[in-house]
Design a protein that fits this description.
The protein is mainly alpha-helical. The chain contains seven helices and two strands; from the N terminus they run ααααβαααβ. It is elongated. The mean pLDDT is 86.
């Protein structure tokens, strides 16, 4: 089985280079050159989930203001999708990520995330399953596809 598929089926240790066993006590983000703690390090899944749910709740509340007295329905998803794309493209973080001290950056380059990556990333997060599958560095499948990583700002 190809190494890139095997890593998702058999766990993060399947993607290790030849000779590594996975017992080397690597921390999340080490293979990307990120620090272990503090700003620039990868956040916990709880912090990332909190930022995601904060974005969803804010989108529902704002969309609800325009659809009162009816519930926002699909308008909240459309608003979340638009904000996720524009905010990551323009500022490198969504409002929820800003609240939780997170930002999105390119994994292997200091360049900005870019509009194309922001669109693909948002489409994959919308599907939820790619965002729920993580690798050894704490990157979701959506981050791996777009060569991005979420890091702490504080």
């Amino acid at each position: 089985m190809p190494r890139n598929i095997g890593s998702w089926l058999y766990g993060p240790s399947a993607a290790l280079p030849e000779g590594q066993t996975g017992n080397e006590e690597l921390y999340r983000g080490e293979s990307l050159g990120l620090p272990e703690d503090g700003p620039g390090s990868t956040p916990t899944w709880l912090r990332r989930s909190g930022a995601f749910f904060a974005d969803i709740i804010m989108a529902a509340l704002v969309a609800g203001l325009f659809t009162l007295p009816d519930p926002p329905g699909q308008w909240s998803l459309l608003l979340w999708f638009a904000v996720a794309i524009l905010a990551v493209f323009l500022f490198s973080f969504t409002p929820g990520q800003a609240m939780f001290g997170l930002r999105v950056q390119r994994a292997h380059s200091p360049a900005a995330v870019g509009l194309g990556r922001a669109i693909v990333r948002s489409i994959l997060v919308f599907m939820l399953i790619p965002a729920a599958i993580w690798d050894r560095d704490g990157r979701g499948l959506h981050d791996r596809v777009t060569d991005t990583v979420v890091v702490r700002t504080r």
